[in-house]
Design goal:
Length: 515
Amino acid sequence: MMEYLFAKKPLSLLLEEMKGENRLRRVLGPIQLTSLGVGAIIGTGIFVLTGVAAHDKAGPALIVSFCVAGLACVFAALCYAEFASMAPVAGSAYTYAYATLGELFAWIIGWDLVLEYTVASSAVAHGWSHYFQNFISIFGVAIPKALGAAPFDFNPATGHLVVTGTWFDLPAIVITALVATILVIGIQESARFNTTMVGIKVAVVLFVIVVGSFYVKPANWFPFAPYGYTGVSFFGKTILGLTGKGGEPLGVLAGAAMIFFAYIGFDSVSTHAEEAIKPKRDVPIGIITSLIVCTVLYILVSAVLTGMVRYDQINIDAPVSDAFRQVGLPWAQGLIALGALAGITSVLLVMMLSQPRVFLAMARDGLVPTSFFGAVHPKFRTPYKSTILTGFVVASMAALVPLRVLAELVNIGTLLAFVIVCTAVLIMRHTNPEAERPFRCPFSPVVPSLGIALCLLLMFSLPTENWARLFVWLTIGLAIYFCYGRHHSVLAKIRAKENAAGAAPGADLSAADPA
């Protein structure tokens, strides 16, 4: 049994899958991939989470939080780029783990990616709803209160959940349904729509930086780090820094752990490697370029925002547009809200675009039902069934779960994925030193090791509830694996057939028949 649990998928078998008919269409170039990365990164991070992190966790030192989170992402991005150039197939970290750590670890990271993209999409849809309501309020229009927010929220002042008096978030449901429809139609159409949205929101972000800089009051940057520069906990016990009323750590590192959500877009680029025209060259370009551009913009926007408005007076739901209202520029409020809608829409599109591709990779391996999650539309060449399911789940969570809970839950899943990818690079360099690497992570093993250390540090800076939710999610996932995935694994069937035929363990499996 242990042989099957930790069986590794050979690179030859990964590449052999690309020759089949049930594959995705290669239509994405470096500009489109970079645009997808920017589309996923710039959005909720700038337009929503800056307010939560500055108000509750870091104050003006949010600037440093973005630097710390960005540094962790740089290390992880270099590792992602190496794997994406080696194995340009769908699945991202799931596929990389399968090739290096074995099937059980691949399932864990795949299940973790499902959590990451589902919860991230839900948080993004939630943020879109708030900006939409902020935008229409300019014209005196309002969504009925019962249909404008999640039915409960987390109050950091008391550390408890509170009832909001609403039923569900209707705008979040509507935007999720619209995006899911676009995604079913096709990847090329989705990429074009995303490129348009990216152009709009980058223009608005530059407007915020340039115009907002004239309204910065340096006094608002003091105290610069009201909650301190640390904020590290170990399973609920704060070991460095201040503690909030709910027991959560406070400070720059705690802020970095929260806004880490803002960076998850770059890893979604690797999930589209199978749809890249020249994946070995274009995917690393898309990953690294999008990350560098967005990190610079994040730092500038957070500096302008906390300079325009004192950190404890920032509006949590729509911080950027409301900051311009507070300094007496209501006309800019509408422009920024409109740009935020475009920006957050593109984030939602890329997040919901990525999850079905992870399911597709898992379905090809037999770990989830192939007839559903592996189904590719005969005309559109998209994984349409899992896309529709993703839309339904995301809409439900966005309508019922508050932003604070969603943001922190997705962060711990993302950080775990980054730790595994960095670890996998170290293992792959040892087990497959001869494999072709069109892009190599520089300064290995230093860079992967620093990525592991920094991501673990940020994981421990999250509240203990996030660890509990992660363990519950992984427990559910392991139950599914042992009840279904292990018995339907394509690789396990190949291994069994190999053993029955007396083949040498570790032989080339690419030509084996899994049936």
